[in-house]
Specification:
It is a single chain. Strand 21 and strand 22 form a beta hairpin. Helix 2 runs antiparallel to helix 3, helix 2 runs parallel beside helix 4 and helix 9 packs antiparallel against helix 10. This protein is elongated. It contains 13 helices and 57 strands. Helix content is about 20%, strand content about 40%. The chain has a four-stranded antiparallel sheet with strand order 1-30-29-28, with no helix packed on it. A four-stranded antiparallel sheet has the order 2-3-4-5, with no helix packed on it. The protein is of the alpha+beta class and about 775 residues long.
Length: about 775
């Protein structure tokens, strides 16, 4: 990122500028102690006087009424709140006419902010009071009273909490009267400005101790800057929460959300008292102490994918470079670039009015289509299509520009969706709910309808990050979830059985990414860089999972790294200081996934023998069992020394019927109920009872025997033998009840068991003959 600074010297204020606010992406209002409100048009570079305020009105803060109200977009902001030193706030129209003035505080009104849906206004005063007002300016409540002035205030993402300053303290107060407030010492000097982003839920603060800091919403410190030469007078998040701006005396900084600085500019502005971002996040305006209004455009963004590097050189120009042959192209756009994404062989660029789709094989002829909304806040790409998020909805487009679907759910707020809360694969869309962060909505990407019975996936903890795997059939789609405890879970998107089987596969995972061409997951787990070569092993054989991992020390990535992507065999990691680190991963597991997907089991065995890697053999064992390829599984388990499992697989191969084999493979994976259902459906009652006897599920074995009126004596005999082996007496009342009238005769039981096995073999043979006759016809 880079900032292009513009000072429009057409007309400047005669006194310090106290506040600025954008009406559209190209029009800004500024207020100054010279009592003037100026309108700045960036398209025409013109400045005009909106209104000359009365001589005793000295403005302090300005905030435009939100454009999006209840999901409906207004064409432009029509009214704004202006706070002043005389203890009043004023509701003013776009023409500058003051519609209403309200006596709000004793002393100056230091801050005034609308909430996100425009239903309430909060003001903070020199008198230490914080008050909530209706849209029309009626007092609703006094939220807080304290002895020191409140210099800055901000709404929480859901407009249900307030963040405000109290000297050196930051305080978060929920609007519910009974809820507990959270407060902490944040700075060594008076805190001057705060901002709270609705997308990433992070808090910014700056103060007279000449530092700015980043906090999470629990008051935990994520970043603290070094000391500046002067107090930090302003901070402001960009709308998408990816970057923030910092203003001080003759200083303007652009920083990443993790705190490190992209760029430092030293314009001759005096102190920057207020900063405001345009709604599309491409432009920044600052209110300066010397009467100037400073404008900055964000350029020099960079995107990388395989051998391509793309840079936004100007607001409407991109430079494409292929690092392999040093070939270059220049892409020109009609309007300024707002968002871009490069992945899966395509570059998707959104401007203020259009969307451009380029193929990496042809940079000359993009596919262009118009956007309804304009301000795209997020682009997510998959192999076959991409997803756009704007202020009104979520849209899935093909790379040919065709609208595929528009998934929706009740209460969906698109303005707070980000890359951690939205994931896309070729067939599925996953969106984490904001009102209940334990809930993940799953949609069919091609229809936009909810998957399965329409019920969302609900986790037991708040979900911080979600990611869908990118390869394989839709029936095998998996979603990885990092929760608030930083535990990593994996579950199938389509319910294999009655409930979502959510399995924990990692702890203390800070960041993760799926590979783009194989279902391999990488993440940074505590102090280890970890690659889960075959995460789905957890559904087939939990004991295998640790053996399929590749781990190495992650100290080279420093503290709080973030994985940007995992393409081919290369993982790109952003360190906390902003530098990029690349880590290479073995190509063999991806090759093994390819062989497994195309049922080339001989090639898979050959690869494992060549690589001589235990983790590769463990992956093959899991893949073979998942595909019911018992011969390959037997070889793979033998290679990793799992003798008991080799014997069990051998016993499955000897079973007379297909149903029994399937049931025992389900048992192998720990799915007892599904194995029971499979056997009962095939009419193999004795085999079902025997399974429960082998698992010591005595109550269920007896229940089935009584229900089907068969083999009650068999269950009682095995139970008696079990008790005799452990020198115990019967205490189970049900067994005591049935044992009274039943005589255990082992010879009879053995004969009955033999008879059952003969019946099963005959049934299997009959089925085999029928199927072969049917195939001949």
């Amino acid at each position: 990122f880079h900032l292009t600074i513009v000072l429009l010297n057409i007309w400047t204020h005669k006194e310090l500028v106290s506040c600025v606010g954008w009406t559209t992406a190209d029009e800004l209002y500024s207020c100054s102690e010279d009592h003037q409100i100026l309108r700045w048009n960036l398209l025409t570079s013109e400045t005009s006087l909106v209104v000359k305020l009365q001589e005793d009105l000295f403005p302090i803060d300005l905030h435009w009424f939100p454009k999006t109200v209840g999901g409906k977009k207004q064409a432009q902001a029509e009214i704004f709140v202006l706070t002043s030193t005389d203890g009043k706030f004023h509701l003013a129209s776009k023409m500058g006419r003051i519609e209403k003035s309200v006596e709000a505080h004793k002393g100056a009104v230091l801050a005034g902010r609308w909430n996100y849906d425009g239903t309430a206004l909060i003001t903070a005063g020199e008198d230490g009071q914080i008050k909530i007002w209706s849209k029309s300016g009626m007092l609703r409540s006094t939220l807080a009273q304290q002895g020191s002035p409140v210099y800055s205030v901000a709404w929480g993402p859901d407009s249900d909490r307030i963040l405000y300053t109290s000297g050196r303290l930051l305080i978060i107060k929920p609007l519910q009267p009974s809820a507990k407030l959270l407060q902490w010492k944040a700075h060594d000097g008076i805190i001057l400005k705060v901002d709270w982003n609705s997308v990433n839920d992070l808090i910014l603060s700056s103060g007279e101790d000449c530092k700015y800091k980043v906090w999470d919403s629990y008051g935990r410190l994520l970043y603290t800057s070094s000391s500046h030469d002067y107090p930090v007078t302003s901070v402001s998040w960009s709308p998408d929460g990816e970057v923030f701006a910092v203003g001080s005396f003759n200083t303007l900084r652009l920083c990443d959300k993790t705190g490190w600085s992209y760029v430092l500019e030293k314009p001759n502005t005096g102190s920057v008292f207020s900063l405001a971002w345009s709604a599309d996040g491409t432009q920044l305006a600052g209110a300066c102490g010397n009467g100037h209004v400073i404008f900055a455009h964000v350029v020099e963004q960079r995107w990388e994918w395989r051998s391509f590097e793309i840079t936004l050189t100007k607001r409407r120009t991109m430079q494409v470079r292929n690092v392999v042959n040093d070939a270059g192209d220049v892409l020109e756009f009609r309007d300024r670039v707002i968002k871009a994404s490069l992945a899966h062989g395509h570059l998707v660029v959104t401007t203020s009015l259009q969307c451009y789709v380029y193929s990496a094989t042809n940079w000359n002829t993009p596919l262009i289509f118009d956007l309804k909304e304009g301000t795209v806040s997020l682009i997510v790409q998959a192999e076959k299509h991409f997803l756009l998020v704007d202020g009104t909805g979520v849209y899935v487009f093909s790379y040919e520009g065709r609208l595929i679907s528009t998934p929706r759910f009740p209460g969906m707020r698109t303005d707070i969706l980000n890359a951690q809360s939205v994931s896309l694969s070729n067939d599925t869309i996953a969106i984490r709910d904001k009102s209940d962060e334990k809930v993940i909505f799953l949609f069919d990407a091609l229809t936009g309808k909810a998957l399965g019975d329409g019920k969302p996936l609900t986790h037991k903890m708040e979900v911080m990050e979600i990611a869908l795997d990118q390869c394989g059939p839709s029936s095998d789609r998996k979603i990885a979830v990092i929760d608030k405890n930083r535990d990593l879970y994996l579950t199938a998107v389509h319910r294999l059985y009655r409930e979502h089987n959510i399995c924990k596969i990692g702890t203390m995972v800070h960041t993760m990414a799926w590979n783009d061409s194989a279902n391999i997951l990488c993440g940074i787990q505590d102090t280890q860089f970890t690659v889960w070569h075959y995460p789905s092993a957890v559904f087939t054989d939990k004991d295998l999972l640790p053996k399929t991992l590749y781990m190495k020390d992650a100290s080279e990535f420093s503290r709080a790294p973030h994985i940007l992507n995992y393409v081919g065999t290369q993982v790109t990691v952003r360190r906390c200081d902003g530098s990029l680190v690349y880590s290479s991963v073995s190509p063999y597991p991806a090759l093994l996934h390819e062989y497994s997907a195309s049922s080339r089991w001989e090639d898979a065995l050959r690869l494992c023998r060549f690589a001589k890697d235990q983790s590769l053999w463990a992956c093959l064992a899991g893949m073979a069992m998942a595909n019911r390829e018992l011969t390959t599984a037997e070889v793979a388990y033998a290679a990793i020394g799992e003798v008991d499992k080799v014997q069990y697989i051998n016993s499955i191969k000897d079973l007379p019927s297909k149903e029994s084999s399937v049931a025992h493979m389900l048992l192998f994976s720990g799915h007892v109920q599904e194995a029971e259902a499979t056997l009962l459906q095939a009419g193999l009652v004795y085999q079902t009872i025997q399974v429960h006897i082998n698992l010591y599920n005595w109550d269920r074995a007896l229940e089935l025997a009584v229900k089907h009126k068969t083999h009650v004596d068999t269950v009682l005999a095995y139970r008696l033998k079990f008790l005799q082996d452990f020198s115990k007496k019967e205490t189970n009342k049900r067994f005591m009840q049935y044992a009274d009238g039943v005589e255990v005769d082992w010879e009879k039981i053995q004969a009955k068991v033999e008879m059952e096995l003969v019946k099963e073999r005959e049934k299997a043979a009959t089925t085999s003959v029928r199927s072969s006759l049917a195939s001949r016809r």
